[in-house]
Amino acid sequence: MFVLGRWWGIRVGVDSSWPLIFALLCLAFTQSFGERHEDWSMALRWTVGVMAGLVFFASVLLHELGHSLTARAVGLPVVAITLFLFGGVAQLAEEPTRPRDAFMIAVAGPAVSLFLGLCFLLVWLLVPGELWAGTLSAGCLQLGVLNLLMAGFNAVPGFPLDGGHVLRAVLWGATGDFQRATRIAAGVGAVFARVLIVTGLALVVFTGWFALGAWHVLIGWFLLRAARTTSTQTALRATLEGLRVEDMMCAELVTAEGYTSVADAVEGPLAEGPRSSVFVVEGGELIGVLGPAEIEAVPAGRRPFAALRSAMTPRSRMVGVSGRDKVLDALLLMGELGVDELCVFADRAPIGEIRRGMVQAATRAGGAPSAPSP
């Protein structure tokens, strides 16, 4: 993921799939403008196409900010916004505790897209068609239609679409059972995804519209995976709810001495298991941590000669958790920092570590380990 920055304190990034989709989107805009305005030069078509792509990119970001700022308004912290293959996702630190809050958060995104779509179409109606060689009018028409389509598509009542979140909120309010409401909404989303896949295959086989059919299949496959992921995450939250870090932590840290080179740490402790960080000690005392960000900051050619003590984040600036913190909060913090383990402190003294892999293994086994081994 590429981090773009922070808006209103929310980390905003794009998934690695976005550059490809952005390029295809700009190409689609350019071809569409060329078909409707044959008098435009190729340079003008591409200029307007790229500008329209950037504005649509901003529209998707505003859609997600609608979710995020509404979540904040009802008291839920927002960790990050990630723009990916077919839109974006706002990552909340915790699930809403009331159906009403869940409903408001869900409808905020499509409401923003609907508003933007109507605004673009209003500009298209009011602006003279010949202004700026018709570029403003043409761009607003395309962007208006796309934003309305985005609002309509997201209104489909199946996870992971916004309509699925609305359906879950309604069912949750009616039944009082959050888990059951999530399963139903995810099931509807899976059915919709399969319909898209079958429709796409039919388009390819019976009409020869390969490109359109392929898009249907790709979107359906993506939504089906997302619906299954939603069900898995909900089950994971239910399993981990109420568990504390002390229930799943390991009482020993995986460490390396401060004089160890970065290259030796990468080829040693970091290569021995699914972990991203190593804790640095001197004289048996913890002095810092070396994680992905610290490793990336050291040029590859210098890693055999750079000692951990010079490359690490010192203990005074380490981010960790306490044994009484929730496991779910620890996992969210790992995701925000991009690491797979965190040091556990008690009265500012290290007492162990909690690992993402350990939590995942415990949930697959159906409970928390009583005495995890290093």
Furnish the topology, listing elements before pairings.
Layout: E1 2-7, E2 10-14, H1 18-36, H2 42-73, E3 78-84, E4 87-92, H3 99-126, H4 135-154, H5 162-175, H6 178-207, H7 210-240, H8 245-248, E5 255-257, H9 262-267, E6 278-282, E7 285-290, H10 292-296, H11 308-311, E8 313-314, E9 321-322, H12 327-337, E10 341-346, E11 349-355, H13 356-365
Parallel strand pairs: 2-3, 5-6, 9-10
Antiparallel strand pairs: 1-2, 3-4, 6-7, 7-8, 10-11
Give a quick summary of the entry.
By secondary structure, this protein is α/β, with parallel strands linked by helices. Helices cover 57% and strands 15% of the residues. It has two domains: 2-240, no CATH class; 245-365, CBS-domain, CATH 3.10.580.10.
Q: Can you give a write-up of this model?
A:
This protein has 374 residues and is α/β, with parallel strands linked by helices. The chain folds into 2 domains: 2-240, no CATH class; 245-365, CBS-domain. It has 13 helices and 11 strands. A 4-stranded mixed β-sheet has the order 1-2-3-4, covered by helices on one side. Strands 5-6-7-8 form a 4-stranded mixed β-sheet. Strand 10 and strand 11 form a beta hairpin. Mean pLDDT is 83; it is low at 367-374.
